[in-house]
Design a protein that fits this description.
InterPro entries: Lsm8, LSM_dom_sf, PTHR15588, Sm, Sm_dom_euk/arc. It is found in: Nucleus. LSm subunits form a heteromer with a doughnut shape. This is U6 snRNA-associated Sm-like protein LSm8. By secondary structure, this protein is mostly beta strands. The chain has one domain: SH3 type barrels (Roll). It is built from 1 helix and 5 strands. A 5-stranded antiparallel beta sheet has the order 4-3-2-1-5, with no helix packed on it. A hairpin with a 5-residue loop joins β2 and β3. About 10% of the residues are buried.
Length: about 90
């Protein structure tokens, strides 16, 4: 996680949410602090909705995947025309 500090990351959560923001902090329980956080909400009928969340804390037990976001590639995505089913919760 140390290598992701102050970089844009995308987090898939156990409950099926997709969050993107600047990683500002974390602890041994993988609790994450994101600045300039927003959620991408997918829909089969309309484009991807961007929900701004500001400074946001994600509990470590809800983190499924964390990855660095390529901001240049991300900026080129036409999210208004992306139609996809919402993410399913992780079941195990």
């Amino acid at each position: 996680m140390e290598g992701y500090m102050n970089k844009a990351v995308t987090i898939a959560t156990q409950d099926g949410r997709l969050l993107t923001g600047i990683l500002k902090g974390f602890d041994q329980s993988t609790n994450l602090i994101l600045n300039q956080c927003y959620e991408r909400v997918f829909s089969l009928h309309s484009g991807v909705e961007i929900v701004p969340m500001g400074l946001y804390i994600v509990r470590g037990d809800n983190v499924a995947v964390v990855g660095e976001t390529d901001e240049e590639t991300d900026a080129t995505l036409d999210l208004e025309n992306v139609k996809a089913a919402p993410l399913n919760p992780v079941v195990y």
